[in-house]
Here is the input.
Amino acid sequence: MANLLRGGFSPVGGNRARPVKYVVASGFSLSNSCVGMAPGDVVKRVSDGTVVLADSADTSLLGVIAAVSYLDASGRRVYGGYVPAGTTYTGDADVINPNAIYCHVWTDLDIEYETYLSTASSTVLTNFQLINNSADITATSSTSVDTVYKRSLRGVIGTGQTGAANVQILEILRNPAQDYASANMRVKVRFIENALVGV
Amino acid sequence: MSTATSTLSNNWGNVWHKILGAIWSSSEKTNEPVWKKYLDEDTTDKKYVDDVERVGPALWSETEEGADLDLGEFGQGIVTRYEPKKFSKRLIIPEDFEEDAQYPEIYDGTRMLQETCVLTQEYDAVGVLNDMFSTTNGRVGGDNKALCDSAHPIRGGGTVSNVLPTALSPSNTAMGVMLVLVDKLPNPAGYITAGYKVRRVVGPSNYRFRMKEIWKSDQKDDTANNAINSLKGEVSDEYASVPYMSSTTNWSMRTTVKNGAKFLWRRKPRFRTSSNFDNETKSALGSARWTTGFSDWRSFIGSNI
Here is the structure.
């Protein structure tokens, strides 16, 4: 029985303070042909105060996108979607600019997220030994944003032995549909303390 | 005011005299529209409406006593917009023609319009079946896929197919394969619910008798080993034989999904007549507003052969 793939980071526990409103730079570009910024994705703060998607090698993260909104070509503010890469606006990149792209981010360190582990051993014991180990967030790509369901498809990968090690696996979720010996297992993770900092 | 009339010039001279026997027409459609067998009928009082899929939460997690319960999430899925189109036609008939015609059927504009109104519905509705496997004509769902596609996206990054993996002609085996496919159809959250059932088989008239053999035989069709016909009684409704389909080979099963493929009325047909005093003609006109489409692609499982 394979696991159902369900990408993105969703808060499932911990102290959930309200998400904080940030802005995204006008005409922002994303690496690896990524097509946009969507809820459930991981962002980092860059030096001008705006946020942009974090990639797998980033060790300084800000948090997870709760929601985004932006002005479309007709000047209508779009809620509940994803922001396509290259979206532009007039005015400064600050939260009081009514034209800006807004990105609401969960920044609280205590939040526990549910996501998927993109690779796994075929041995159940080996997978359970990952608990309390660290892992990386998966890389952005041309398919890491679901443009139909407007949701990030990113998860975590690896065992923390190499890479950025920016999340900690707290638990492998025990629900009846889990295949504990296959990829895409549901896991509960938390960002490690020194990862959630601004640049 | 138009001065044109709808009668064909000089073509009626030999029918309005008094020895006329009977009148017949190329369309004698009096039955219930065929589209009602494969589309759900619905109405709206709005200029356009959006059907929205709701994606439910994941399965419950095993939780330690006293521990905080995991937070679930649900959200908006694919969105399908229906914007009804207006269809209309009018006829202008000279009063002189009425005076000379022996039977009123000849110049009964409303009746002629009623017949073609139903046909217009049929030819428009069958587009759902004709474009079932193709996006060429732009008939796509909220996920930008054709009604039957091997890779409908579901939330999270996975895909689901609602076509037979290997296209098959109608047979006992093919029906069995498709029935199992429907049993295992996942819901918007990606979980098999066993909640989808087949309502009827839909296809071209070419399969009309073949389908009867497959579904109505007491013993398994086309074998000589006396096996029972296990398909018998599996599907409640009779085969929907659709003569308007452009394909003579593609066939499908229609499921019990709510908000599947539908025929959406904004306004049912309205017929009016009026007299034009300036040129002594009568106008008959009809119009209606509707559209067709599909919200949940799970309403059909298809075989594209």
